[in-house]
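Structure, all three chains, one model.
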Amino acid sequence: MLAWYDRHARALPWRSPPGTPPPDPYRVWLSEVMLQQTTVAAVRTHFARFTQRWPTVRDLAAAHDEAVMTAWAGLGYYARARNMLACARAVVADHGGHFPGDEQGLLTLPGIGRYTAAAIAAIAFGRRAVVVDGNVERVVARLFAVETPLPAAKPELYALTDRITPSERPGDFAQAMMDLGATICTPRNPLCALCPLDRDCAARASGDPARLPRKVPKAARPRRYGTIFWIEHDGAVLLVRRPDKGLLGGMRALPTGPWVEADPGLADAPAALDWRWIGGHVEHVFTHFALELRVACGLPEKGCASQLDGEWWPIERLDTAGLPTVFAKAARRAIEGEADG
DNA sequence: AAGTCGTGGGA
DNA sequence: TTCCCAAGACT
């Protein structure tokens, strides 16, 4: 694996080349948190934005919550941003501005679980650690032809990964396994002819490696309905801040009621206005439900507008508000809908 | 310990 | 279109 990695490692902004000294732990940590359940392509821009604006963990710890949440907007899983900020502040307050170098210490920090602690320990500190992400699970399930379906197979896959993890260059080994999973041992149509583990792979020998890992079927995704309230006054639109806990927690948002099983219409309107429906609707898919939104447009009088709770944000600069994608879609729909009449 | 938590891209 | 998936953590 290490020989393969020396030749085929992906060059990524948060990495050092194979066999060279490890990168700054701050950059390793930042990239690992961003990469949780998120594609490399999506992380690139946000990683550059964060490291340019906050070059050290002390800079990030001193940042305003709002600035960090805005910079994170669009990446998804917003609890990561809140945990990331809490983690940076804990590193400064409790660890003198230096990340702990061992898994046990890393695990005590917010947003760092078993995978991330192992990855940081191996990649940033050269510690031997068992690094198991989705890629590694797939590679190892095939290598040993593990028939147990996920997620029940996780302990078994962890033990098998432990067995093949070397003490030398543990960070490069972990990244090699992940690169292999991302580029060769892919979920569908693995490129076995290019794989350095070709002759050792039990699934390859069986003739149908893509069959593994087995997985338990997922439940169907329910559909929910909601209304977005586009409240416009004097070239600005009313934005609110969502509560810290729960879906899209802590993010700036357009006013909306609960998202429920049947179309709520104007039931949760934040004010008694002469609402006008924008044509069409907005479709957005979350992890565990699909959402269908209609947009209601209201134009308050001056006296009424000043009483509404929230921020009046200039519509021309709405792209700087740090809206999660679902609200950015709704805003687009509202602006287009108004233009259509 | 199953459910919660985003988003965009590829097949 | 629809489904699946991507360097998981937290409760």
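The longest strand of chain A covers residues 223-233.
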